[in-house]
Write a structure and sequence with these properties.
The chain is mainly α. The chain is about 60% helix and about 5% strand. It contains four helices and two strands, in the order E-E-H-H-H-H. A hairpin with a 6-residue loop joins strand 1 (about 1-5) and strand 2 (about 10). Helix 1 (about 15-40) runs parallel beside helix 3, helix 2 packs parallel to helix 4 (about 90-125) and helix 3 runs antiparallel to helix 4. It is elongated, with a radius of gyration of 19 Å. The N and C termini lie far apart (about 50 Å).
Length: about 140
């Protein structure tokens, strides 16, 4: 693992088996945290998974984070949406929460991917100035 340069965040190659194993681990830890939240009375089914997805995408890249997001949807449907531990027909509110999670997951994974690209540019010495800029264009 290489250091990314942002607060010592380790980086994992995006398509490596370590990235996908870390995706499984993040989903498992998020599921435990979500279970605790459900026991305390929270009705937000995907609340614990979104921060984990962002951190995972920041560390491993988009492929493993997308895998974790796709793994999260059936897990939440099965384990956290009543009736617990069985697949049943989704109500419109539950389908809306799944759709909202998918939208937020795509946005967070895209943001983390942009952060990874920015860290790569900064680590390589920043952007190199070109010969001309729009402000000094003689036209």
């Amino acid at each position: 693992m290489k250091r990314a340069g942002l607060f010592g965040v380790p980086r994992v190659r995006p398509w490596s088996w370590q990235a996908f194993l870390l995706g499984w681990a993040v989903v498992a830890v998020s599921a435990v945290l979500q279970g605790i939240c459900i026991l305390l009375g929270a009705k937000l089914y995907f609340a614990a998974f979104l921060p984990g997805l962002f951190v995972l995408a920041l560390m491993t890249g988009a492929p493993a984070a997308a895998f974790a997001a796709l793994l999260t949807v059936p897990l939440v449907w099965w384990a956290f949406i009543p009736p617990f531990f069985e697949f049943s027909a989704l109500t419109s509110a539950n389908a809306d929460s799944i759709n909202l999670f998918c939208l937020l997951a795509v946005l967070l994974i895209g943001l983390a991917d942009l952060c990874r690209a920015t860290m790569t540019i900064v680590r390589s010495g920043g952007l190199k100035p070109s010969g001309e800029s729009a402000a000094t264009n003689p036209q």
